[in-house]
Amino acid sequence: MGAVTYPKEEVARFVDYNFIPVQIQVSNTALMQQYAVSWTPTILVLDADGKEHYRTVGFLSPEEFIAAFRVGKGRYFLDLEQFPEAVAMFDEVLQSPATANIAAEALFFRAVAQYKESHDPKPLRAAYETLKAQYPDTEWARRAEPYKLIPA
Amino acid sequence: MSLKICWLDELPKAQEAARKAQKPILLDFYNPQ
Question: CA-CA distances (angstroms) from residue A110 to A74, A87, A98?
Fold first, then answer.
């Protein structure tokens, strides 16, 4: 990450705009244990209280990193019940380059945020249809399978 | 001069900054070797 992804200016700009970045070495065993980290790179999204909302393990290219941590920030907003902000972050993922699995995750949680905001289950059914049509081989398409029972 | 990520090196400092800026923290565990 330090050799390929972090030096990219678009990554630095994205991180600076969206996050407070902190790097901890693996020698900090107390924090490694606190967050149950056993491999690097492991990158977490935390709130100001230190509570975890998202994590990735392993190398991410610059493009994958930005897409993944847009999802991560969306998940943070979702957990904090800031639903419009969550939907906006997931929309950013869907409007930018992303792997099928990351785009599918954004679609899934966008529908969750819409449902939690409105209590209308139709976005979940719509997400199932879109995932099945556009990202049928992703885990998120399989996780949305029960939503096919929701009336369209 | 290109923009670089300004990493903090202590979680409590990041938490304080996150509270002030109302932003999430990006915590990267890394192996410098």
Answer: 8, 5, 15
